[in-house]
Amino acid sequence: MKSEIILDDRKIGKIAFELLSKVKRGVEGRRELNKGIRARCRGMYSFFYYSGSLPTLAFIYSKAGEDLIKTTLTRMKEEEFIPPIVKDEDLSYAIYGSLICCFLNEIGVNTDGSLKSIIDVFGEPKDEGTYILDYQILRFAKWIRKFGESLFTGG
Questions:
Q1: Whole domain around residue 137: which residue ranges?
Q2: Angle 115-122/128-151 helices, nearest 10 degrees?
Q3: C-alpha dihedral sign at 44, 50, 56, 62
Q4: Which InterPro entries match (predicted)?
Q5: How many domains is the chain partitioned into structurally?
Q6: What burial class does residue 151 get, using C-beta atoms within 10 Å of its C-beta: 0-12 exposed, 13-18 middle, 19+ buried?
Q7: CA 153, 66, 131: angle at the middle one, nearest 5?
């Protein structure tokens, strides 16, 4: 792991809110996509809690596909988020995966959105940094759940 930054919970919450607000502006008026994003925000936290980061991210990548996550991540880095035109369910997983990638980049753990870069981030299974990173992602997912439920109400 390249960085072991441990952020204050308020900082993690602020990052989550800013990212979700950007996504919200980009998907305004897309009712089914809003519902899908809300479902991902609500449901993925428990995946991270019970299974850990790498298995959960592998699941997210299996649902969205690596190319869609990389495309979505690139668009999320732009001034205004304009989502790719794909099926709403696939896009909701890609957005969630991209949120995690944006968070990793924010805390200094660089990922380009490729599955290989995600796997590389986690290094050796017993590495202390992996546990710290798992915990940071879990805290981020908790904020995503809280803000996602309030921001994405289906409209």
A1: 15-151
A2: 130
A3: negative
A4: AF1862-like_dom_sf, CRISPR-assoc_prot_Cmr5
A5: 1
A6: middle
A7: 80
Is residue 101 in some structural domain? yes
User: What six digits make up the tokens of 142?
Assistant: 């908790």
pTM higher than 0.90 for the full model? yes
Q: Which region, left, alpha or beta, applies to residue 29 given φ > 0 means left and ψ of -120 to 50 means alpha?
A: left
DSSP 108: T
Of 87, 111, 99, nearest to 41 (Cα)?
99
Q: Is residue 2 part of a domain?
A: no
CATH at 38? 1.10.520.30
Tokens describing residue 47? 């995946």
CB atoms within 10 A of CB 87: 12
Question: Tens digit of pLDDT for each residue in 58-69?
Answer: 999 999 999 999
